[in-house]
Amino acid sequence: MENFSASAKQLIDLCEYGPYEQLVSVLQDTLVMKTVLSTEVLQPNPYSNSTEDFLILERMLEAAVRGEQFDHIAALLELGRQYGIAVPYLVTARVVLAAINRPESTLDLFHALERAHSDVWAITLPMGGQVIDGAWISARLFPQARLSLLRHLLARGIDPEQLVGRMVFARHSLLFQMVFWGAPCEMFECLLEHGVVIARSRAQHAAARRGRIDVLEVLLRHGANLDERFGKSALFPDGTALHAAAAAGTMSAVKWLVANGADTTLRNCDGATPGDLLPVDCNDDIAQLLHCRK
């Protein structure tokens, strides 16, 4: 727990919660500015005796980012510039982490910080992770925020496969993971337009299992092979996307795949066709569709 002095704590709270006009007014005070530009020696880790010097202005910036106070951020960055504070001492890993922890606003916050630190994406996070991984993982529950972030990263020339990260399905492709995240179709379109390869991604199988017809349509439009075969995994039977859909009982995907030319006669390594994997309570029309179509 960081125990700042009372005057420093008031400034930090003002940056996170207070109105911009009050911050501007307070910063006109010479005594206040002495506090802003000072450092305090604190023990950041209660389980360690080590201490660190903390620049109050940097902690104020972190608080402004945490509070998504964009006017405050601009004012504090300008203040740092006026007083010649080196950017690495102001836009620190803690400040960047505060932006990452606001996933719906991360990209806007990074744009604000980039005015002072042009390569803010290269900063290493406190625990050693990469900014891109942290921002991408943090935004996973906010599809539109992640779409904006994806477009920005691709525009910067980031290799899309770097975004796989240390996730539950990290051994799988980015396209595969996105199906399970419930990513919007625009994200698949964006990645495929930037050269992400469908082959061997198993994206068709994931989309078929989850009934993501919208994703299947995007994949097919970009040349996906609906009859591509894969070995057995914890999530899928051996075989094609049609095997995966049939085994999962995802009838909407079964119908779509058959309608779009998926081969119903292909057998997996166990010799089973998709029809053999249908649930016992499957609709007779579906069973007939799979067993009879050639």
Automatic annotation (TrEMBL):
InterPro entries on file: Ankyrin_rpt (IPR002110), Ankyrin_rpt-contain_sf (IPR036770)
Stored Gene3D superfamilies: Ankyrin repeat-containing domain
SUPFAM superfamilies according to UniProt: Ankyrin repeat (SSF48403)
Ranges of the ANK repeats in the UniProt entry: 199-231, 237-269
SMART domains (UniProt xref): ANK
PANTHER family to which the protein is assigned, alphabetical: ANKYRIN REPEAT CONTAINING, ANKYRIN REPEAT DOMAIN-CONTAINING PROTEIN 16
Protein name as catalogued: Ankyrin
Organism: Karstenula rhodostoma CBS 690.94
High-level lineage: Eukaryota, Fungi, Dikarya, Ascomycota, Pezizomycotina
